[in-house]
Amino acid sequence: MKLLWHTLLVATGGEGAAVVYDSVGKDTFETSLKCLRPRGLMVSFGNASGPVPPVDLLLLSQLGSLYLTRTGLATYIAKRSELEEAAAELFEMVTSGKVKIEINRSFPLKDAAQAHRELEARQTTGSTILIPD
């Protein structure tokens, strides 16, 4: 993680990132915060390495008046209209090319169990899809 942190600081001219999205959780939480520029935003949305321990709010101040949020999909699609609006916006971004979806692995539907084993063993990256037979 130190290499990532150093690389990010070099890439941003020492300023740090405006936003960091962290899906890993416990193992990357503090490094993700340290990658932010003053008043940067960290979005925590997963805990693959375990849940983040309780946060000392003073740390956010010490690292540059940082913002921290923990998102949950249910909050953003609580109303049917919000779900439809978000889906339409996403599909527009994908069809326009602004968001690219890379499919790195595909499995025939009959091999779904193998796909799950590889996902659980973290042998995949990016998107993995099942193709109907």
TrEMBL record:
Record organism: Geomonas diazotrophica
PANTHER family given in the database record: QUINONE OXIDOREDUCTASE PIG3-RELATED, QUINONE OXIDOREDUCTASE-RELATED
Name under which the protein is recorded: Zinc-binding dehydrogenase
Protein keywords: NADP, Oxidoreductase
Pfam families the record matches: ADH_zinc_N_2
Organism domain of life: Bacteria
